[in-house]
Amino acid sequence: MKTIRKISQDIYYLGVSDRRLALFENLFPLDNGVSYNSYFIDDEKTALTDTVDRYVADPFFENLESLLGGRQLDYLIVHHMEPDHAANIGRLLEMYPQLKVVASAKGHQMLKQFFNVDLGDRAISVKDGDSLSLGKHTLNFVTAPMVHWPEVILSYESHTGTLFSADAFGAFGALDGRIFNDEDVVDENWYNEARRYYANIVGKYGMQVQAALKKAAALDIKMIAPLHGPVWRSNIGDLLEKYQLWSKYQPEQQGVLIAYASMYGNTENAANALALALADRGVKNMDVRDVSVTDLSEMISLAWKYSHIVIASPTYNLALHPKMEHLLMDMKALNLQNRTVALIENGSWAPAVIKNATEIFSSMKNISIMEENISIKSALHDLAPIEKMAEAIVADLNK
Ligand code: FEO
Predict the structure, then answer these.
(1) In 3D, which of 258, 260, 256, 257 has the Cα closest to residue 346?
(2) Is 166 a pocket residue for ligand 1 (Cβ < 6 Å)?
(3) Suppose 103 and one of 78, 279, 293, 307 were both cysteines; which one would form an S-S bond, judging by CB atoms 3.0 to 4.6 Å apart?
């Protein structure tokens, strides 16, 4: 049974959604699943862009055979060699002996590493400025190293204005039949999943994403067809704007993430008191999250969203609570920059959170730590320092 949708003139979506996989990269929770997107261009020459993860291969191959209707597959365009998209290349090569594979030189090198095959004259290496004519449709190639791996290329199909964007502009979440962004009830759902995907998967490589965006700016993009999540055919300007902010490590909103760890509720109480004090002063853009309950990938996404981050943690083994330490180290690993941070520590005998967190944040780029940090001994009994911190955050938000 084919599960295909046409996305544009002669271009078809034949990707597959997976709602069974619990963890993407065995790391990131997929509460709403994930889609692996592949596209077919039906022209004088037939072309397929990427494949899908091995666990959803069967419906993908059924779709492909149905689209080909007995014809030969002429080209496979490999935008990205990560196995969630490349797993089925070996099977394709066996099924279609005349198939030519288009990838960057690094992509071909990786293909050899993963599949132990020598493609010989079936390999076509492309670089910036190269193009491939399929008949009516022409694919123009753009290299995009480190978005998300070094071999990545994007391709722009100039007849329809479709940008095949690899991992860029991707999002977590299965496509419930609604493969276009504007078919969902609210775009905000997709922006949240696109941010969680961006920050955690590509966030470290902001500079390289900037370079790719500069190349993309020269194109008349009417549709963005990424490897995960919806095909964007509206609000493309908004999406590009968000990518500009995310890749420059600029916050999406003036607002506050209060991230807390708490063993017995005392540090949580301080975090809640601060949230109330901020709300009292009119702060609306705010999320309060327990790092032991909220997945790290969601915490990272919220850190990418907001301008201000409050860290509230008990002292544990003379350092941060391990879950909080993990969050801070992940922010650092992903290169988060340009944020204002306030610290609340709790410690019954040797508080060490402010010292440890300050060391980590000081080693990151352009993180400013507020002066109104709070040190609690076991439990909060005095609201004055909380009020003072709230005042200072609000003043900073309104600067
Ligand atoms: Fe969805 Fe970097 O692969």
Answers:
(1) 260
(2) no
(3) 78
